[in-house]
């Protein structure tokens, strides 16, 4: 399939991306040469400041790679920063209610009470794109992914999934494990919660995404409706590559 990330998500295409934990445009540039469908800059759990986000998005756009930013929180300035820098979309952590979901969608798009307009940002081609064209392009491209990682969100998942403008629900399985006080991500309560998100996504026409530590688990969750997988990270690639190198040489 072709189209932007928002269109590919809506079409139900299986998409595979990875997290970027190193605030380096060179890392993004290298990953831009891969066959990944998208990258996600982890500004929630890695040391990304605004200049680093800006530079990494610039590198991704130069490579023609869709790039999401997992923002530190749903604060308006974090969402605005990522989108003004030219991100394809945002992953918003700890969305716990339909009200928070509505706010996240509103702050990610232009309109009354929504994202503030600036024609001087990269997203608007530094004043060279007419306002009408930028508004239309932003509406067609901006991808809003809500991270579901709290018991309260599981309890309210039907209402959250029903919110218009949500492009995907992204399951934070590790956070759910910790929040439920479970000893393993395979705890029945955690598995049931993830299945509940997938089922709600299917009922309301929202795509479901997730991180999985074991690649062998991917087919199971595809069967349950997941289509967006953000797997591994630049850190895990480096560690796995180094381990494989040492093992092969010393074997």
Automatic annotation (TrEMBL):
A GO molecular function held by the record:
2-dehydro-3-deoxyglucarate aldolase activity
- GO terms under cellular component: cytoplasm
Enzyme Commission code(s) on record: 4.1.2.20
Hey, which family's this protein in? Belongs to the HpcH/HpaI aldolase family.
| One matching Pfam family | HpcH_HpaI
Carries keyword Lyase?
yes
- HpcH/HpaI aldolase/citrate lyase domain residues: 17-236
Q: What class of enzyme is it?
A: lyase
Name by which UniProt lists this protein: 5-keto-4-deoxy-D-glucarate aldolase
- The UniProt record lists the keyword Secreted: no
Per UniProt, which keywords does this protein have?
Lyase, Metal-binding
């Amino acid at each position: 399939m072709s189209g932007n990330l928002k269109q590919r998500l809506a079409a139900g295409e299986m998409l595979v991306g990875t997290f970027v934990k190193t605030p380096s445009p060179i890392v993004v540039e290298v990953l831009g040469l891969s066959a990944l469908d998208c990258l996600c800059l982890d500004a929630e759990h890695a040391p990304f400041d605004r200049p680093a986000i800006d530079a990494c998005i610039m590198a991704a756009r130069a490579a023609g790679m869709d790039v999401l930013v997992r923002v530190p929180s749903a604060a308006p300035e974090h969402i605005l920063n990522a989108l003004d820098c030219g991100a394809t979309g945002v992953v918003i952590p700890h969305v716990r209610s339909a009200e928070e979901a509505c706010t996240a969608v509103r702050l990610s798009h232009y309109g009354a009470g929504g994202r503030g307009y600036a024609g001087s940002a990269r997203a608007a081609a530094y004043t060279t794109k007419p306002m009408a064209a930028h508004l239309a392009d932003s509406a067609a491209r901006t991808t809003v992914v809500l991270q579901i990682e709290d018991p309260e969100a599981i309890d309210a998942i039907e209402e959250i999934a029903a919110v218009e403008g949500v492009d995907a629900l992204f399951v934070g399985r590790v956070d759910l494990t910790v929040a439920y006080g479970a000893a393993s991500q395979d705890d029945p309560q955690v598995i049931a919660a993830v299945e509940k998100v997938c089922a709600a996504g299917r009922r309301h026409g929202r795509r479901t995404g997730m991180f999985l530590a074991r690649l062998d688990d991917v087919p199971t969750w595809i069967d349950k409706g997941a289509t967006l997988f953000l797997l591994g990270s630049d850190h895990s690639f480096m560690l796995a590559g180094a381990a494989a190198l040492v093992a092969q040489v010393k074997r």
